[in-house]
Amino acid sequence: VTDIGRILRLEARATALFLAVPALAAIGLATAWPALIPGVGYWDNTVSAVAGSVRTLGPACAALAAWTALRDDPSLGYLRGLTVRSPATVPLLDLSLLACVALPAYAIVTVVVFVKTMMHQEAGHLGVLGIALGAAVLMTHVTAGYLAGRLFPHMVTVPAVGVAGYLWSIAGPGEGTSWAGLPTAAAIERVDVFAAVDDGLFLARLLWSLGLCVLLVAGYLMWLTRHLWLVVPLGLALGAAAAGVARIQTYDTPVTTASFAYACRSWPIRVCVHPALRPALRSLGTAVTPLAARLSGTQGEFTELTQRSEGPMAMPGAAGTPGAGHGGPADPRAVYVRIDDLSAGFERRALRQIVAALLDPTWCGTGRREPGADYTGLVSAWLLDQRPPRIADTAAAAVFARYDEDDRRAWLRTHYGRFRSCRLTAADFQAFSVTGVRHRVFAAAWPKVRPGPRHRAGLDADRA
Amino acid sequence: MPPIVARDMGVRRGGRWLLRPASFAIAGGVIGVAGAAGTGKSTLLATFGTLRRPTTGALQVLGADVGDRVARRSIRAWLGYLPGHRQDPDMTTADLITYAGYFKRAARGAVAATISRFGLADVAGLSLTSLPSDVRFRAGIAAACVGNPRLVLIDVPMTGFDPRAWHELVPVLRGAAPTVIVTARTPDELADWCDRVFVLARGRLNELVAPHAAAVPLPRGSWSGARPPPRDPRLIPAGSGAGD
After folding, report:
1. ipTM score of the complex?
2. Euclidean distance between CA atoms B74 and B53, whole angstroms
């Protein structure tokens, strides 16, 4: 073993293969990084991102392996070629050297992604089997690339192996639960915080990948050496691969629903999120409180906001309580939002979801253009604290702009039904006061006649 | 038995015969093979070194058939080879010999013995790239000779050395193994210090009558292949019966 270590060290120095490690790590990171949830440290997502980096890292390592197999080393190749050792020695040394290049690159990807995860609030399950699966699939790529280089010793084999591996990675279903997905067994689509990957599936894929890798190596060595005893590892590898495939077929999807307990904050309103998004509680509560206050007293009033994974937004009184399964809220006045990540502006995106959910899709749905949609957009902008949109009815816009916060809340309580069904009209903005007494200050002639001091005095009197 | 025995052996590469089918034997001693660039010296040496298979015929090296997979390994155990177009690796002298010893399955003591035998103890820990060309060459021969081979093949060694360094290298080359085959571009480079010199030209390997002639008498009737008369009056066909 000492000799092999020394020979590997000498070969590594002579071939300078280790120079490829940073480049390979960069390739792997470029794939893993976008799969991470911004601002969130969720281990299931981390593991799937690391294993998924093999989608590009694997083909790159396969191309490197093919090049290694067919290169004619002008400095040491003649000594290897005249070896009196077993014909298996050189391929095994090469594969060991390639493993010493590919696995450290994968390790760098793993460490960087782990550090990034640990910089945030951690949650989820660190599936070590998933990391091992990525390594196994990577070595399968390396072995396949090396054998391709040995069997087809032409320079065109190098790019061909890389391109074929990459196309296979991106073209296949990639979920690894079907026959077509097996070659990319490590690839799992982005895992959000409500999803988890079963360790059993990782184990099944690991069995398949290791079995395939050993099958390739043992098969090639048997062809090379004619040693019959290699039938034993061949058979074992075949059995492991078959067992892995059989197990994989029992899974419908690669991800399952994660079990967790919500992290909640009760003041000023109750906000509950996945524990991985705990850092968002304060800012989310701060952002959503004004909206909750503006909707107070309307049918859209809510006192609780909860993050949910998918599905239509559930408004107060709607059927089903998506969070209940996770110990979440069952309050009928709860509103649900989907928060995919904590990248900049996530609070505003959550608010938009709430306001969008207020609207009746029957009247305000996509493709419909109700006359009142402009007015609803005007009110929605206020609810979201956004600049009011330009609408055709500038008079109504001006009237609404003149309302103070209390006026608008009172107005919304009165007009909520027409607002959510996009059936507001100019008349709804023409004469309204918080006392409920319609007056003529904001008459249809406005803004041709701007209200003067006397009008304002009258309005103040009404309010008083 | 001669270390190299060829029966109707032909070597073809790139659509032309580098060595037309011929039968010959090369006895022990220091043998030179001369030929202009591109005549196939290196390919012939690689064939003797079991790195290539003859295109036609049979070749026995050290008594074993190179066509036999198992026999080839036994040949390699007693064979040393130093190619001409090689780069010196980025490693120390000792590392190079250790590396060669690993693939030769040499005993642990063999590496140290080889370093000592070739006078490389002082430079064992130095990087090859920092050494003069003659010392690098000596290290290359040492790597080829680890494990005391019976046959050593050295391709085009006479390049880039000053006369003094070359003068010191000749005994090293001659003492490398019982049979040493070296190549050169011209017979003159070999004639002074080789026991026999062959010339490879136009696919024919003919022996140059050399000062230290040591040819092997060929068993009558065991060789085939008619050989044309040599064009150069100094040349006689290889294996034509010149006695040693």
Report:
1. 0.81
2. 16
* H/E segment holding residue B23: strand B16-26
Chain A: give the shortest CA distance to residue B159, in Å: 17
Answer whether residue B213 shows pLDDT above 50: no
Out of A14, A74, A82, whose CB is closest to B103? A82
Distance from CA of A217 to the nearest CA of B (A): 21
Helix (H) or strand (E) holding A457: helix A453-463
- Nearest-CA distance A68 → chain B (Å): 16
Q: What average pLDDT does this structure show over B79-108?
A: 89
Q: Which of A13, A80, A84 sits opposite B91 (nearest CB)?
A: A13
Q: How many whole angstroms separate alpha carbon A367 and alpha carbon A297?
A: 30
Beta carbons within 10 angstroms of residue A411's beta carbon: 21
CB within 8 Å: B103 and A80: yes
Q: How far is CA B94 from the centre of its chain?
A: 23
| pLDDT (0 to 100) of residue A316 | 47
Q: Cβ A85–B103 below 8 Å, yes or no?
A: yes
A3 touches chain B (CB under 8 A): yes
- Please tell me whether residue B81 adopts helix, strand or coil conformation: strand
H or E element: which one contains B6? strand B4-13
Partner B, chain A 82-111, Cβ-Cβ below 8 Å: 82-85, 89
| Residues of B in Cβ contact (< 8 Å) with A7 | 99, 102
In this prediction, residue A178 carries a pLDDT of 57
A74 touches chain B (CB under 8 A): yes
- Cα distances (Å, whole numbers) of residue B145 to A103, A367, B120, B172: 36, 85, 13, 11
CB contact under 8 A, B105 and A84: yes
Task: Give the C-alpha separation, A205 to B60, whole Å.
Answer: 51
Question: How far apart are alpha carbons A318 and A211 in whole angstroms?
Answer: 51
Give the per-residue pLDDT at A366: 62
Q: What is the pLDDT of residue A183?
A: 61
Does pLDDT of B46 surpass 80? yes
For residue A227, CA distances in Å to A224, A230, A305 come to 8, 6, 67
What CA–CA distance (Å, rounded) separates B128 from B114?
16
C-alpha–C-alpha distance, residues B230 and B209, integer Å = 12
| Separation of alpha carbons A238 and A231, rounded Å | 10
What are the C-alpha distances in Å from B122 to residues A340, B125, B212? Answer: 67, 8, 34
Q: What is the pLDDT of residue A181?
A: 62
Q: Which of B172, B120, B181 is nearest to B150 (CA)?
A: B181
What residues in A contact B91, CB-CB < 8 Å? 10, 13-14
What is the rounded CA–CA span in Å between residue A258 and residue A45? Answer: 11
From CA A240, how far away is CA A248, in angstroms rounded?
A: 12
The three-point CA angle A419-A425-A426 to 5° equals 125
Cα of A185 to nearest chain B Cα, Å: 37
Per the model's pLDDT, the better-predicted residue between A188 and B118 turns out to be B118
Instruction: Average pLDDT across each block of 10 residues of chain A; the chain has 464 residues. List them in order.
Output: 83 85 96 90 90 92 94 82 90 94 97 93 86 93 95 94 86 56 65 82 90 96 92 96 88 76 86 88 90 87 83 47 42 79 89 85 67 84 88 83 86 87 82 47 34 42 40
